[in-house]
Specification:
Strand content: 5-15%
Number of domains: 2
Radius of gyration: 17 Å
Order of helices and strands: EEHHEHHHHHHH
Number of strands: 3
Structural class: mainly alpha
Strand order of the largest sheet: 1-2-3
Helix content: 55-70%
Number of helices: 9
Shape: globular
Amino acid sequence: MEKFLNADNYNVRYRRKQIAKALVTARRALKGPETPVAKVAAVLNPYMDCTEIEGLTGPSHEDTRSEIFALMADAYRCEGNVELAAKWYRRASQLSPGGHALVYAHIVCKHQLAEFYDDALKTLQEHQRHWRAKPIITRILRWLRLWFDRPQREIAHSEKQDLAFLLQRVVSKAA
């Protein structure tokens, strides 16, 4: 890690390998028998202020930074704290509509977290746009992975209903 001055604030740069290792360790902590929030936070806390990742630029840079916050959200979701999970997913969404968009929209709809409707809708729609732009082989591989992951498959199957729910709530709120 190195910190360097840029204008009025500090940028924090990490190597790609450091962050990749931390993300793998955090994902493993989610599957452990103990409460995951403390373990995931201990692993990811040093990377929360990351502004630059060596070797990554553009969407992959933002997706990786977003994944740090999405994993914290996943930890809170595993512990049943959907309010805090939604706040962490919102923070992840500010960087990228990455892979967490479906889960974020699903918990917002399932638990009717009205404060998050607008953001969850924008994140889900942006995720869908990004997803449609991906090569067909990437989409097929994801579909195959979903086949073996029941919880993720159920969330993916609720995508249309979640989108309709959010559209209805956001439109009725605006009217």
